[in-house]
Design brief:
Layout (H helix, E strand, L loop, with lengths): L2 H8 L14 H13 L4 H4 L5 H17 L9 H16 L5 H4 L6 E5 L4 E5 L2 E4 L13 H12 L12 E5 L5 E5 L12 E5 L6 H8 L1
Antiparallel strand pairs: 1-2, 1-6, 2-3, 4-5, 5-6
Helix pairs in contact: 2-4, 2-5, 4-5, 5-8
Amino acid sequence: MDLEQRLKEYLVVGPGRACVEAPGVQELLRVVRGRVVHGRTAADLERAGFRRELEDEARRYLDEESESNFSHLMLSPEDKVELFERLMCSMFGLGPLEELLQQPDLTEIMVNGPSHVFVEQGNRITRATDSKDRPIRFVDEQELRYVIDKIVAPINKKVDDAEPIVDARLPDGARVGVVLHPVPGAAGDAPGITKRRRMTHGRGCREHKER
């Protein structure tokens, strides 16, 4: 069984995509996101009244890091806006999967680690890309784990070493599968997830953009 067949069988989603494809940008995202979420769980990020504080922190840390440790990137104001939106989708939505979830013609999303995201469209499986034809990927495995926690939260599930595999139907009708440890023979060594229609976008990220 090849990788695409194995991913399709397990319906797996794992960590995502870079907002600006340039050397050092992924590390900048990791650093800023790490500062914001340090010591906080996915549940903490959903607490009422906590959102504005996190948004302010993300903006402040992004400015600080881009003007000091990552000044060599010479980010434009437009770059910073894109990175900020990416951070918001990571913390309040489903990160790099948000853009895919808004495409009604996709029947399945499969992830095998932070850098391997696939989609099924018209019975054809391809690597996932964004609207600018850039590969979709997670910032790191930590972001993937946050997304996994958000996906299984509505069914009161927790994916950990005690329960490393979850296969269930979500309230919106979508079928989701999570494999915490790598599927034998698959590429990479990070968690994976698959989500099959019916799919809906992450509400948190959309709400942020509509504010």
